[in-house]
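Reviewer comment 2.1 asked that we show a complete input and output for one of the modelled complexes. We chose the adenosine-5'-diphosphate case, as it is the one discussed in the main text.
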Amino acid sequence: MTMNTTLVINAKGGVGKTTITTNLASYFAARDIVTTIADFDPQGSSLNWLAQRSSEARKIHGADLSTRIGGGGFANGRRVIARETRQLILDAPAGPSRLLLQDLLARTQSILIPVGPSSIDVHATAGFIKELLLVGQVRFRNIRVAVIANRVRNNKPVYAPLEKFVGSLGIPFLGRVSDSDVYVEACETGVGVFDLPVEAATDERNEFLPICRWAAGDQTEEEAPTSNVVPITAARA
Ligand SMILES: Nc1ncnc2c1ncn2[C@@H]1O[C@H](COP(=O)(O)OP(=O)(O)O)[C@@H](O)[C@H]1O
Ligand SMILES: [Mg+2]
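Response of the prediction step:
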């Protein structure tokens, strides 16, 4: 059985790496795919999210792969990735060292880069993508890369330069994740939008689906869709 790995990373903090990680994990778990989040961030936000997660929710495994001494908020402090994992999501810290970046790149098939809505975030992300290409050699390694605009509040053209830049590099812009309290509340209670009833998170699930499908590789193609995963609509601009 093969394992598909997705790295969620950006040089910046607070851009939504953990939010993307946890919601992606909730998507795979909702489809009964064995899923593990490996948290490389000493802040341990993904592991804290897992610690909040009810034992009745679909199981998501956690692994503490940060370099923090003595482990952190995660109850079990597991440092190993469950062997049966089929979807592994790596939640990276902000500003990873070159050494850590190389370690992360060696582990992954795909990279998701969330970008915040400020021009500072956009600028920093363009620099980070250049680093991935030049230092990380992602093309040479055959690692797929995609960008996500996160915390979108309106159609302000703040992302236009970034869309143009990534477009010129042939990197897909997977879509826009809105600035929504649903993500904040889900994050606080150890759930993702795919754990919630459809009617409680319809827009959020729809905007997340292209991200999930891209990250899935071909793994979800084999799975029958679960009844509460709603089809994607073109409703959101
Ligand atoms: N789309 C969103 N809508 C609303 N709040 C968000 C969204 N994405 C992230 N946040 C909030 O922004 C903060 C930083 O997000 P987080 O995912 O922890 O970023 P990172 O892991 O990159 O540091 C958190 O409080 C999170 O709940
Ligand atoms: Mg984080």
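Confidence is low (pLDDT under 50) at residues 222-237. We note this here for comparison with the apo prediction described in Section 3.2.
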